[in-house]
Amino acid sequence: MTNDGHLTALVVDDEAPALSELGYLLGRDERIGEVITAQSGTEALKVLDSREVDVVFSDISMPGLDGMALARVIARFTERPQVVFVTAHDKHAVDAFALAATDYVMKPVRPERLAEAVRRVVTARQKLEAGPGPSTTLLTDDETIPVELGGVTRFISRSQIRYAQAHGDYARLHTDTGSHLVRVPLSVLEERWAQHGFVRIHRSTLVSLAHVSEVHMDHGRCSLVVGESELAVSRRHTKDLRDTLLRRPLADRRGASATP
Fold it and tell me: Whole-prediction pTM value?
């Protein structure tokens, strides 16, 4: 970040016209202080090795080190910049979500859509600087998750997800209209969504407390009613769940009833 608090952005694209256009649009954004360009993933790594960058706007389909490979390298940095993918194809959206990309912008890039991506970068940076704590700002922004359905990438909101179940290195996300398999381990979702009301109730199940309508206790065994499903809570997680429910504000607990 520059001395005046503006973002330093690195734009990566092997096509000169696209690189120039994206650099121009970002340069017009008052939140961006400096724009650096690179025409390959390898060139981008050289830039990142020589100076600090707040956000990388990267194409995906590039010869050599493509955008996905570049993001995987960046993910291993101790202090890593945010990544926004800018691409003409939606087929990589699920992979981008797995890499915790801040945003996924489709080409041709519309100025208002790019401005929204910059807003998300700024918001994510503010959350990081604020650190963990009771601040309600951590709970305000919803998250968009890309899912594949019949060969088509669709987008659902985190707030729509009732619960998630582990499927090896994948997770199945359940909403009121169906379920979707995403290539993200449940442990990653647990860490990312802990501040948004998701709790682990079993080694294979993560639940959104906002969608819990009933809590059942029967001879020491606990279960939650979420939509049309009743989900078992493991003995290991029962105490933590009870403590979490008791810590929630009263207004948040009115929707859930307890059954002895």
Answer: 0.63
